[in-house]
Amino acid sequence: MKKYKKVLLVCAIAAVLLLLGWYFLNREYKYFMRSAYPLKYTDIVAKEATANHLDPAMVYSVMKAESNFNPDAKSRAGAIGLMQLTPDTFDWVQTKLKSSEKYTEEDLYTPEINIRYGCKLLSILFDKYSKQATALSAYNAGIGTVNSWLKNPDISKDGVVLDNIPFEETRSYVDVVLKNYENYKKTYQFNSKGENMNDDETWQGRSQKNVG
């Protein structure tokens, strides 16, 4: 009888240790994922994602792929800021937003302006193209380029889906953004206002350094 009780006690201790191990591993995994896929400029993203009917997870995914949240980023092609807009694209999107204020290239370094117009561009592209990969290809390669691909039966059989993406850079870009998107969707839960809903105090405290 004593031997039986000892076995039960050992099994109970083992079960508790396994549960504790699972708890701490799960907690550290969440911390790792939130460190690898941070939320920055949250107030601006929530506002602009909601205004443009975008999934905030997609906005963060694009921003991470484009600049890794560096507002001063500038590419060799001249794309600027968090969402990497070129001055020409910026000027074009300004005609769509019809703001009373005319912004210059230097304004693209301002996070609020860059995210506002980057989200507007994403919204235009997601309205224009029914497939995420096609819209993201246009964000990277341009609308004219993607439209020409869709007219090519060797690239798109139905004129809607890109069966292959000819540019390696664009193909890699789309893969990265969609992978980011998958991980952001797994890691966070957003409400209808674009706000993250599953942060407890510990995670909020640990992520303060991620606020832009």
UniProtKB/TrEMBL annotation:
Protein name listed in UniProt: Lytic transglycosylase domain-containing protein
Pfam families (UniProt xref): SLT
Species, as recorded: Caproiciproducens galactitolivorans
Annotated TM spans: 7-25
InterPro entries linked: Lysozyme-like_dom_sf, Transglycosylase_SLT_dom_1
Domain Transglycosylase SLT as annotated: residue spans: 45-154
Ranges in a coiled coil: none
Key word Transmembrane present: yes
The entry's keywords: Membrane, Transmembrane, Transmembrane helix
tRNA-binding as UniProt keyword: no
Source domain of life: Bacteria
Upper lineage: Bacteria, Bacillati, Bacillota, Clostridia, Eubacteriales
